[in-house]
């Protein structure tokens, strides 16, 4: 018999009881930690009801504004170019600058949304798009106007990529299909509204 076994045999009943109590307490703490970790790892369920539709309206409204900008600039660029002294070759640049930045940055902004959270990136993109919509009004030449339109495309990219992620991660089943249909319909309505309002 080893020395540790001899000590455990000759230990007082009170010491054995204390050791058993400590073992039970440690096992209980371990179980509680495991349960807490499993609860934290468990994803939240999909949204339903008015919360889901509020989110759908917010995301669809943001993409509507993006496409509205395309329609509005398409129609208004001749008069904008006349006021700012655009040459004939400059007329294509505002819309192209917006589309280039928003299209080229979709993958990057989608990666940012996956890494830092879709909702924060969506809110940042919405705020950026809102604030950058104001400076083009005060531009005095073609270079500054084209630059601001390019920067505006960054906000559009942040909104579009993260908005799709928000819908995909928070909705499920038929409601997700309806949300995508509403978003697509909002884009069509936005372009038509921007085109017609500036004719």
From TrEMBL:
Membrane topology: Multi-pass membrane protein
Subcellular location: Membrane
Keyword Transmembrane set for record: yes
Organism this protein belongs to: Heliocybe sulcata
Regions that span the bilayer: 52-71, 91-109, 121-143, 149-168
Matches recorded under Gene3D superfamilies: Multidrug resistance protein D
Listed GO MF terms: transmembrane transporter activity
GO CC terms: membrane
Record-annotated Major facilitator superfamily (MFS) profile domain positions: 55-199
InterPro entries hit by this protein: MFS, MFS_dom, MFS_trans_sf, Sugar_transporter_CS
Protein known as: MFS general substrate transporter
Keywords recorded for this protein, A-Z: Membrane, Transmembrane, Transmembrane helix
Superkingdom: Eukaryota
Residues of the signal peptide: none
């Amino acid at each position: 018999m080893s020395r540790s076994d001899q000590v455990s045999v000759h230990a007082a009943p009170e010491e054995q009881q204390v050791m058993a109590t400590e073992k039970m307490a440690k096992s209980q703490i371990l179980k509680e930690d495991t349960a807490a970790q499993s609860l934290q790892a468990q994803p939240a369920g999909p949204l339903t009801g008015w919360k889901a539709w509020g989110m759908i309206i917010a995301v669809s409204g943001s993409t509507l504004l993006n496409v509205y900008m395309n329609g509005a600039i398409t129609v208004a660029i001749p008069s904008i170019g006349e006021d700012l002294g655009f040459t004939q070759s400059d007329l294509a640049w505002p819309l192209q600058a917006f589309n280039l930045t928003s299209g080229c940055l979709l993958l990057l902004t989608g990666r940012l949304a996956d890494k830092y959270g879709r909702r924060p990136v969506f809110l940042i993109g919405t705020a950026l798009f809102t604030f950058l919509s104001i400076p083009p009004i005060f531009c005095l030449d073609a270079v500054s106007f084209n630059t601001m339109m390019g920067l505006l495309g960054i906000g559009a990219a942040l909104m579009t990529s993260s908005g799709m992620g928000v819908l995909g991660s928070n909705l499920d089943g038929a409601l997700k299909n309806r949300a995508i249909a509403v978003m697509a319909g909002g884009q069509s309505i936005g372009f038509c509204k921007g085109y017609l309002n500036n004719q």
